[in-house]
Every structure is written in structure tokens, then in C-alpha cells.
Amino acid sequence: RHRLELMRHIYSGGGETGEFPDRDEAWSHCLEMEEPGPRPARQRLELMREMYQNEAEVSPSSPDVSVDHANGSDPFYDRFPWFRRVGRAVVYLSNLMYPVPLIHRIAIVNEKGDVKGYLRVAVQAVLGRDEETVDYPMGVRQSARIAFPDGCTARTEKQTSADDGEPDTEKEVDTKNHAEENDEKRESFEDLPDHLKLGSDFTMRVTVLQAYGLASEYTDIFTQFNFVNRHDEAFSTEPLKNNGKGASLNFYHVQNITVTVTRSFIEYMKSQPMIFEVYGHYQQHPLHKVSQQETVSSCGGPRPPPRRLLPPAIPISQPVRSSKYRATTCPTTNHLHSKHDLIVWFEILELASSGEYVPVLVDHSDELACRGQFFLHHGLQRRIRLTIVHERVGELRWRDVRELVVGRIRTSPDSMLDDDEDGSILSLGLFPGEILEVPGDDRTMFRFEAAWDSSLHNSLLLNRVTPSGETV
Fold it and tell me: Which of 177, 200, 202, 462 has the most CB atoms less than 10 A away?
């Protein structure tokens, strides 16, 4: 959004900006804020300037040239790919030197450094002897041959990207040290194992077994892998549906890769990895909601507020039924007299050494708003305090609270318990409520407390220490 506003400001004749006095510098900043695409930033800037120059010279009678905009050549158009990269991982191949088959469990990490899931990959050498080759459940099986000529150095991605932006310069080389390095490499190539003799054919097998722990927002997951210095020769699995219920995606994709053993290939196996990238597309494309909102707005309907301004979605269960009072049901034909919004503040108090009840510690998470976690201690007397807040109106006055019921003790937000079969439901003893007067706040605040003995629920979840990572 900042980039869009900056571009509009520059093209509307705003000239210099506060952050970037120079117009070219501001344009470069706009283009650097986008994700890397197929067109370099400098080239795209020149195309933008050329298009605006041409538009200024076109007369009203000129033919329409909007076809270029539709086929994607418009430099102002940002493509949003249908398949998005979930994350990437690396697998080193040094076990092929011995050879020992290994199954790697690798983390799938996105560009922000967050772990988005895990991938299980098996790497082994195919030696022609069945007893030394591990077979996995049959899936897609493919074979390919690639070349590792000695002139092809095993380069890292950082070296490749750095060389793309630097001109060719002459560098001084210490011939003595260079000769010593060549002698060491020559000695290391003389004691190679039998299956990796120079000039012979070597077949390695890469099996993408499973992917698990991926977010439910991605579907049609597939994995693409390649050597670092072979971006143009990538291997890919078939896409699988991701139901997002914690089940693993079983690829079992077998890729046999045959290579003529060279010095560069030996060096690559010793020090460089294979790159695995996991892709998927959204269950619901992010632009779908935007287009729907624009359609509603164009039809004259009210445009909904941004999602960041809406309250977070919280799993809310039906209230526990009271054993003393029956819920009153109002006929649908009754006239609605008034409606009021209530804010309810929950506190759990524990008896301190001073003899007073003090609120327990609450852990508030930024990711889960309005879902704090109470930290309770065993063996202490407790109370539950509720404070009800609403705008001051003359027709709504609090006198008393009849009952407070606690039940459905569980470890997940969603409740599958039936109140008739739930033996943990408990009606708490109430203390008289009071109206609070807060200086400077004209809202009505009604507060009351209830004694809570958690052992009376006869629930194992409340009578033991909660394991790490579990909440009640």
C-alpha cells in the first residue's frame, strides 16, 4: 500500500517526496519493494517511462493498444502466481560417498524464516545389487541423466547471484597456493570408492516420501528439487490434495539420476546440497475476496470493513444449561424493545499469603486475541470474578445474578460433550454483586464473584499438572 501511494504521488505531479528527494530514487524504491519477478527492476522502470511517454503522444483517433495490457506485458501489472512457494529445504549428499542410504527429515522454511512444515526425503546410491538398495512403496518412478562437466564448478546460490550483478574484473591469483590446492584435490580423487571412479556412470536415487505439518490454506501441494548449479534441470512430484487435518501427504516419488562421475560432481557431493522447494496454491485465492468486495461496492452495497478491523474468530460454544433454572424463550412475535452490547471481563483469583484474593497471571498472545491463558496453582482456594460493562442507560439496571455454572472441562476449543452426560458441571456459590464507580468513566460496571473449588468437578484435567503444550 505504501508503494502504491508513493507511485500515485510521483505520477500525479507530487515531485519530490519526504523520504526520497530524487525522483529516480523514489521510483527505484517503489520497484525494489516488490517480490522478485521475471523482469528486472531497472528494465521495468524504463518500460513504465516509455509507456507514459507514448500515452502522452497518442491522439484520440489512434487505435487502441490495450491488448498489451491483457497479455501481461504491462509493466504496471503485478502478476500474482496461482502457485505460491510454501517454503524450501536443503539436503546434503555426502552419504553417497560411502554409500549409506539415509532418510532426512527436513524443515520447510519460508522467506521469513518460519517453519511451514516438514519433508521426508530418502537419498541412496543405486549399485545394482538388490540387497543394498532400499525400496519404498511404489509411486511415480522417473529416470534422468544430467552432466557435471569439470568446467561446471559447484557454486552456491549467493555466489551465483553476486556474480550476476558484478562486471568481469581481473583478479590476482597466487599460483603457488593454487598449485598446492590442485595437488590436494588430485590426491583426494585418487582414493575414491569403487562406485565413484572418474569416468564411470553413477546412479543416485532421490525419493520424496512425505510432507506433513503444512497449513490448511494451501492445497495441491507438490515438491520441486534441483541441484544448486542446475536451475534449468529441476525434478517435480505430482500435486497432492491437502485436506489440512494433520494427515501426511504421501508422495513416494522416486527419481533416479544418472551422472558421469567427474571431479566437479565429487566436489558437489562433498560440500553442496540439493534444493527442495514446496509449492501449493491457496484453498481460497487472496484476490477472490477483493473482487467480491469490489463487486458489492460497484452494485451500491456497503463495503465491509477491512479484516484487520474485525474481531478475531473465536470458537464459541453454547452456554452450559442450568440445573436450577430453565432458560426463558421469547416468542418470535414479540416486539424488540431495545438491544445493548455487553463487555464481560473474566478474572480468576487465588488466595495469597496476605489473606486476600489476587488475580492470577494471564498470558496474552498477539496471534490469538481475546484468548488469554490463565496460569493456576494447585492447592489454593479460588474465586471467579466477572465484571459486566455497558453504556449507561436508564432502562437497564443490574440488581443481582442468579447463577454461575462451570462445566464441559476439555482440552480443545470445540466441545463435543452433552450436558446430560457431563458429570463435571458445577453451580458455584455467589457473593453479592456491586455497582462500580470509576472516575472519568460514565459506563455502567456491575461486578460479582463466585467461590470455585475445582476439585468438585471430579475432572482429571483439573486435578493434575497440565502437560507442556496442553491447555484446559
Answer: 202
